[in-house]
Structure formats: structure tokens, C-alpha cells
């Protein structure tokens, strides 16, 4: 039997659709590839729609969705015992150049950055995705990941230092 949809629910569903590109980016950072990312996004949206009554109007839907995705990913990692991820990069999005050499250099840099991010521990990788990629505040990331603000700051500092050491050797 179909569920009756309230006016507010329709607005939330439209907002969910507009969040999909951001959810996919976050998912790719967590999983390391687009296929698993899309599966994670689909699972998170399904869970959100099932539990739509738990979302509190007036709060940030994106934060709620990122938290659902993070929890789903943790559950998957525990179930599959597979938190070490390799990142196959065969597809690059949005890179264009007039110069073939420049395009190749850009592709190599993207691969290096994605490999460096994928090599980070899970808790650092999640923070990089939320704060550096999605632009959330430390406070929002703290709430989504359910960790203290100090933990967010120290993990992010370690992640940044690791990324600089991997991507710019000698520039510590």
C-alpha cells in the first residue's frame, strides 16, 4: 500500500535529489570508487526515505545524510572486513585542456591526490571528505561523525600533514 506523502515530505525528497552529487563525492571518498559509492548513496537514500519521520525539520538535511552514509559505510566495513581500499581511476570528470601534455599532467595529479586520500586511515579520509571537499565546518563534521571537536581538529591536521608529505615530498 503506498505511503501518503505530506507536503513537507515532497520538499525533503526534492532536496534529497539535489544533494545526490555531493553524496556521490562523499561516497567516492569513503569507498574509493564510483560503483561502490553509488551503492552507498542508494542505500543511504533508501534508509533516509524509510526513516524520513526521524529527520527534524529546520536541521540540515545534508548533515543528516552524511551521517547516514558514514554509518552505512562503517557497517559495511565491519560486515565485509574491508576498510583497506584501492582506488581504480579510469574515469576522470571535468578535466579539460587544450594541451595534451597539460591534460596528462592534470590526470596524474588527480590520481596522486586520490591515491593519497585513499591511503589515509578511514577516520581521516572521512574528515577530508566532509571538511576539505564538502566545505563543512569542523563543528558540523564533529556532529556528523559523533566525535569531539578536538578530535576533528587533530585528525584533520594529521591528514593534511600526511597529504602534504605524500604529494609534496620535502615541503613539510
Key words describing this protein structure:
Rna Polymerase Sigma Factor, Chain: A; single chain; disordered N terminus; Arc Repressor Mutant, subunit A; mainly alpha; 172 residues; 7 helices
Element string (H = helix, E = strand): HHHHHHH
Number of helices: 7
- The rough form would be described as globular
Low-pLDDT runs of 5+ residues are: 1-7, 82-87
Label the structural class. mainly alpha
Written description of the protein model:
The protein has 172 residues and is mostly helical. The protein has helices spanning 7-31, 34-50, 61-80, 100-119, 122-133, 138-145, 149-167. It has two domains: 1-83, Rna Polymerase Sigma Factor, Chain: A (Orthogonal Bundle), CATH 1.10.1740; 94-172, Orthogonal Bundle (Arc Repressor Mutant, subunit A). The protein contains seven helices and no strands. Helix 3 packs across helix 6 and helix 4 (100-119) packs across helix 7.
Furnish the topology, listing elements before pairings:
Elements: H1 7-31, H2 34-50, H3 61-80, H4 100-119, H5 122-133, H6 138-145, H7 149-167
Overview in brief:
By secondary structure, the protein is an all-alpha fold. 70% of the residues lie in helices and 0% in strands.
Amino acid at each position: 500500500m503506498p505511503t501518503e506523502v505530506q507536503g513537507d515530505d515532497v520538499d525533503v525528497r526534492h532536496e534529497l535529489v539535489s544533494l545526490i552529487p555531493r553524496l556521490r563525492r562523499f561516497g567516492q571518498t569513503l569507498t574509493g570508487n564510483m560503483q561502490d559509492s553509488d551503492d552507498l548513496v542508494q542505500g543511504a537514500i533508501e534508509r533516509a526515505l524509510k526513516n524520513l519521520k526521524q529527520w527534524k525539520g529546520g536541521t540540515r538535511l545534508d548533515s543528516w545524510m552524511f551521517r547516514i552514509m558514514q554509518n552505512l559505510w562503517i557497517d559495511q566495513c565491519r560486515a565485509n572486513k574491508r576498510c583497506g581500499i584501492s582506488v581504480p581511476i579510469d574515469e576522470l570528470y571535468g578535466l579539460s585542456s587544450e594541451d595534451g601534455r597539460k591534460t596528462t599532467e592534470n590526470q596524474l595529479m588527480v590520481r596522486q591526490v586520490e591515491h593519497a586520500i585513499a591511503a589515509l586511515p578511514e577516520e581521516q579520509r572521512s574528515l577530508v571528505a566532509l571538511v576539505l571537499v564538502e566545505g563543512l565546518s569542523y563543528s558540523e563534521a564533529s556532529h556528523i561523525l559523533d566525535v569531539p571537536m578536538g578530535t576533528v581538529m587533530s585528525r584533520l591536521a594529521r591528514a593534511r600533514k600526511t597529504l602534504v608529505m605524500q604529494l609534496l615530498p620535502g615541503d613539510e
